[in-house]
Amino acid sequence: MSKTSGLAAQLRQLPKVSLHDHLDGSLRPATLIELAAEIGHELPETEPEALAERFRANADSGSLEKYLEAFAHTTAVMQTAQNLQRVAREYVEDLAADGVVYAEVRWAPEQHTQQGLSLDEAVEAVQAGLEEGVAAVGADGGIIAVGQLISAMRQADNADEIAELALRHRDTGVIGFDIAGPEAGFPPSKFSAAFTKLAEEMLPATVHAGEGDGIGSVRDALVHGRARRLGHGTRVAEDITLTEGSDSRSKAGEAEEELVEVELGPVARWVRDRQIHLEVSPTSNLQTGTIANFGETIADHPFDMLYQLGFNVGVNTDNRLVSGVSLTGELALLAETFDYSLAELADFQINAIEASFLGYEEREALSAHILEAWQ
């Protein structure tokens, strides 16, 4: 057993927190194949392993168009209450199998009404599936809690209606709001009325920002989106300047030590100083070109720099099927890349649970459970 696989086996048993995971990017390959066959939808592969490998290869190709191919297939089979309920139930079971004890699942109901479901019916179907999954995990002796984040698609310009939808279901499973889709050209300021309404009604929002666009997008998410968290937020690192110098205090005859001076721009400083949580998805960030300005490998990801500088970072999967990842795998990857200890990996779980949209008492109880297990 390799060092990485051994660590992954250990991590899988430890309680973890997932705040950024899309329902339509996380189906089981076998389920997708079965549901597609029922409706006559053609898939590029008809064997689960081959289909998963196809999606992962597309994600690794460097082509955003190929990365997004999977969603045309997944959303096609998620157009009935029965299918939405099944996908949501299996979603919970798969997270629990990976050791996740708390998750916030995001999805866009407006993408699931092509066969006559109303927005409310779609939300109710997903909630029924989530509750079934939680009950099944509990019956097996496990523990997991899951809340819905309702996403509005930026390009659809329907945020006001989706915000109202989220508010209607806030007491029956919905715990927050999100906007997704293309960042460039669709800033949160275009949807400021929706974010104002949510703020007036005290429903928190996380905003996709700093993934497909830069610092301006992050600033807009904070100002007009009233974001309590940033979906990805990775490109906030573009507002950080590192300058290498030398240590003049070096003793005579000894090599001078290189020092790095760090200068945070106003957006980065705001995010760091106010501990705005960054929902980072390392592998997805590499696949979608989010970290292109930093490099082409996971080792080039600014995650570690952000962590070392005191930013509030968490680890997520984004789309488990599409990217071919798990939360356990992402944590093991970061540990291997940046030589993180278990204590540091535990930090990311506490960061996430404290930034979650749970109530204070629930966050405290889960934090205690996580810390006890990781120690």
Could you describe the 3D structure shown?
With 375 residues, the chain is α/β, with parallel strands linked by helices. The protein has 2 domains: 3-27 and 78-374, Metal-dependent hydrolases (TIM Barrel, Alpha-Beta Barrel); 28-77, no CATH class. The chain is 47% helix and 16% strand. The chain is built from 16 helices and 10 strands. The chain has helices at residues 3-12, 29-39, 48-60, 64-76, 81-97, 119-139, 159-168, 192-200, 215-223, 266-273, 282-287, 303-308, 320-323, 327-338, 342-355, 360-374, and strands spanning 16-22, 100-107, 145-153, 174-180, 205-209, 229-232, 240-246, 258-264, 277-280, 313-315. The strands form 2 sheets. Strands 1-2-3-4-5-6-9-10 form an 8-stranded parallel β-sheet, with helices on both faces. Strands 7-8 form a two-stranded antiparallel sheet. Helix 3 (48-60) runs antiparallel to helix 4 and helix 7 runs parallel beside helix 8. The radius of gyration is 21 Å and the shape is globular. Keywords: Hydrolase, Metal-binding, Zinc. Residues 15-371 form the Adenosine deaminase domain. Belongs to the metallo-dependent hydrolases superfamily. Adenosine and AMP deaminases family. Its cofactor is Zn(2+).
